[in-house]
């Protein structure tokens, strides 16, 4: 984790920090509220602008928007494997839309859930959090449900990330907890809480090379890096 990007939806800014947490610069200010961010490859990232139904591809070196991709519904969480983008469309009847980097549709599948806002990719599977049903689900890339998992500390779960061993880390906004699940979704335990500074955490990221976990708080603007 050489650099850290923080997307601030309230101020509509994308901020760059050093790996030690020192503020570096404001990368870009958006005209409309951004929702999620993902790394694609090299210096290229993607950002969803939920109410405008667009995905922006941004070059971090030039700080320019290199492409604007229009989609047909509200767009929330986004992930990439370096060659394609997967984005959540429509929270109430959620769909997973897979696109190439030119914006051409590869696939579009419906996934079960009441309020799917965030997901992450894991081989041929897509793991999602359901903000209303308080659970985590795993689906195939064809939209077939593989498993669901509930935990007593899942209260409005949102951000999630997967480490190099396949463990799934989930930020639960209203319980102020970070819960980790096994790869098969059969076991789970709480690893971080309010005692560790977790307050209304909604975004989470794992750098697999350094085995570090980044957690950001919605309520007070604090961010923490933990070794895992």
TrEMBL record:
State the InterPro entries in the record. 6-blade_b-propeller_TolB-like
Superkingdom of the source species: Eukaryota
What is this protein's name?
Uncharacterized protein
- What is the source species? Mytilus coruscus
The uppermost taxa in this organism's lineage are: Eukaryota, Metazoa, Spiralia, Lophotrochozoa, Mollusca
